[in-house]
Amino acid sequence: MDERFPLIYQIICIVLTALFVWSFVVSREPRQWRRLYQSKFCRAEDFSVNRNKVIDENLKKYGILISMFFLVADVGFFLWGASYHDRQKSEKTTVEERLQMSEVERIQGKSQTLIRTGN
Predict the structure, then answer these.
(1) So where does this one cross the membrane (predicted)?
(2) Mean pLDDT of the residues in the chain
(3) Contact indicator for 35, 96 with CB cutoff of 8 Å
(4) Could you give the residue ranges of the DSSP H alpha helices within the chain?
(5) Which of 18, 54, 77, 98 has the highest count of CB atoms within 10 angstroms of its CB?
(6) What SS3 state is found at 104?
(7) CB of 6 closer than 8 Å to CB of 85
(8) Model confidence pTM above 0.70
């Protein structure tokens, strides 16, 4: 297993991607999904054309919002998982190593300014 992108983040990304795709498909074609739901769980006398139209409109409106939520969460977890290795690496550095790295960056910054000014 590659420690740069741990398994738990991979699983979360796969689940969120599947939820995004499913909710987006439902919001794009709400009539088919409403009919499927009604055929499985509703009685025949509960059907109403006006009520069905309102359900379809609400599925479309809220389905897009929910799918975008899943997409944003998916991208967020992907970036969080992709930066896992760097975050672990920075947490393991000691105070001395951090001071040494900041000193090297300071020296490099000074040398870059000297090169730019031509001295």
Answers:
(1) 7-25, 62-82
(2) 83
(3) no
(4) 7-28, 30-41, 49-82, 84-92, 95-117
(5) 77
(6) helix
(7) no
(8) no
